[in-house]
Design brief:
It contains 12 helices and 13 strands. 34% of the residues lie in helices and 15% in strands. The protein is of the alpha/beta class. It starts with a strand and ends with a strand.
């Protein structure tokens, strides 16, 4: 059987092909699955997708007509898939429920330190042989407060690094993580966390109840010199409200690896095109903002684990087995 994989990055392709070797053939495409590309999947029983593929009602209908019966998502997040429609159509949907939390946590810290110490500006200057220090002053993280919104595996990994920096830890989640409590984390209401934290990082899933978790009111409740980092999902932050606050000169730095309207933009080369997204275009002009293209997970370790889990999901589907990765079971 041949599997069709959408949105495959160049570094990812050989790993994906090697993982499926001896099991199934895999055809890798760099284009993302959407209404325009869905007809390509005609004749493929199994389609493998990434988080920036759009699997809404019309796409799922097209896939079903073409004979697709299983969606194997190569990510933990699945907010891009209409699970109710998939269930109604009798499709099986599986995701990757776990991969290295250190990849994302370490990258979140990379963004935090990059904006704090003005690394991008410093690098650009030295390339022009400008070695002045004007405007490059950062601050120690030691002794300051880190606020972690979402203290699951990734949030815990971030907290452990913050603990190593000697930071005071505040947490917010629906349930306390004992490992974080052992580190000295104190769980407080979201409003208190935002008001007291020097560094705020987001590690919660995107769901209807977390959409714009960081809205205009939340942003106004933060310190003027806070650092805000998001390596989870773009929709957690009201970007228009964030731009409004940045225009007022607020925040020491903002590090974003995700953007709420990233679908159709991230993972592709748009350098020769005019960007029609005015909010994103404005966002990247701020000197205290660093935007990266959803790469926090992108380490050899994490991607390898994602691919291994995807192969297991496909093999389980073919064998009629069900695992914790299945979102919509086979009917």
């Amino acid at each position: 059987m041949e599997i069709l994989a959408f949105g495959v990055q160049a570094d990812e392709k050989p790993l994906l092909e090697r993982a499926f070797e001896g099991h199934h053939e895999v055809r890798c495409l760099d284009v993302f699955l959407n209404e325009d590309t869905a007809p390509i999947a005609a004749g493929y029983e199994i389609v493998c997708t990434s988080v920036n593929c759009g699997l809404g009602n019309r796409v799922l209908q097209t896939l079903t007509v073409g004979g697709t019966q299983m969606i194997a998502q190569r990510s933990t997040g699945f907010n891009n898939i209409d699970l109710k429609v998939a269930e109604r159509l009798g499709m099986t949907v599986a995701r990757v429920s776990y991969y290295s939390p250190y990849a994302v946590a370490e990258f979140a810290w990379t963004l935090a330190m990059a904006v704090n110490r003005r690394i991008v500006r410093a690098s650009t200057r030295t390339r022009d042989f400008d070695f002045r220090l004007d405007g490059l002053m950062g601050r120690d993280m030691h002794g300051r407060t880190a606020g972690v919104l979402g203290t699951g595996k990734i949030g815990e990994a971030f907290a452990r690094i913050a603990h190593g920096f000697g930071m005071r830890l505040l947490g917010w989640d629906v349930a306390e993580n004992p490992a974080c409590v052992e580190l000295g984390m104190r769980y407080v209401p979201k409003e208190q966390l935002l008001a007291e934290s020097d560094l705020i990082t987001l590690h919660v899933p995107l769901m209807p109840q977390t959409q714009h978790l960081i809205d205009a009111d939340a942003l106004k409740g933060m310190k003027d010199d806070a650092i805000l980092v998001n390596t989870s999902r773009g929709g957690l932050i009201d970007t228009a409200a964030l731009v409004a606050e940045l225009r007022e000169g607020r925040f020491t730095g903002v590090g974003l690896d995700v953007y709420e309207a990233e679908a159709g933009l991230f993972f592709v080369d748009r350098s020769l095109e005019a960007i029609e997204d005015d909010t994103l275009a404005r966002l990247v002009t701020f000197p205290n903002v660093l935007v990266t293209s959803h790469q926090a997970y992108y380490t050899r370790d994490a991607v390898g684990q994602i691919i291994e889990a995807t192969v297991r999901n496909v093999l389980d589907y073919r064998a009629g087995r069900r695992s914790e990765n299945v979102l919509v079971p086979r009917t």
